[in-house]
């Protein structure tokens, strides 16, 4: 599982080094360094191909005739790009995704169990403030749903 957060820099070619812990998850658990990238919630999200296919299987059952579902599909899937780490453990983030997620030079890679997110550092700091403000309330809701 992808855990932790790591600060990195996007180089002039749009590449970012993937943390060794994340590379290890890809190699050991998924036996592949293939990822699918897209933009969601103001950041680039990265899913191992195996997890992406699970998403696709679940989402393809949704009725595309509903406008909001169609809009979600357009946004989420139109930006989806297959990627693979290079020999140096770097990931090339396509320009369109960098623009859409407003990624600048400094980024934070955030483990999200079945995938990871790539945030612009300033946006990440704003998001963390929001998380801290609502953490207790959200923790209670999750505990309730899980029967704790």
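Q: What amino acid sequence fits the structure above?
A:
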């Amino acid at each position: 599982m992808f855990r932790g957060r790591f600060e990195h820099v996007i180089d002039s070619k749009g590449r970012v080094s993937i943390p060794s812990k994340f590379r290890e998850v890809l190699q050991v658990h998924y036996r592949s360094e293939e990822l699918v990238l897209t933009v969601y919630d103001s950041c680039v999200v990265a899913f191992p191909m195996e997890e992406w296919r699970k998403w696709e299987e679940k989402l393809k059952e949704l009725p595309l005739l509903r406008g909001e579902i169609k809009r979600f599909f357009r946004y989420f899937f139109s930006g989806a790009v297959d990627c693979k780490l290079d020999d140096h453990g770097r990931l090339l983030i396509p320009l369109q995704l960098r623009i859409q997620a407003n990624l600048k030079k400094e980024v934070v890679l955030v483990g999200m169990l079945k995938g990871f997110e790539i945030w612009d550092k300033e946006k990440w700091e704003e998001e963390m403030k929001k998380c801290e403000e609502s953490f207790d309330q959200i923790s209670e809701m999750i505990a309730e749903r899980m029967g704790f």
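Q: And what stands out in the fold?
A: The domain at 5-121 is CATH 3.40.1550.20 (Chemotaxis protein chec).
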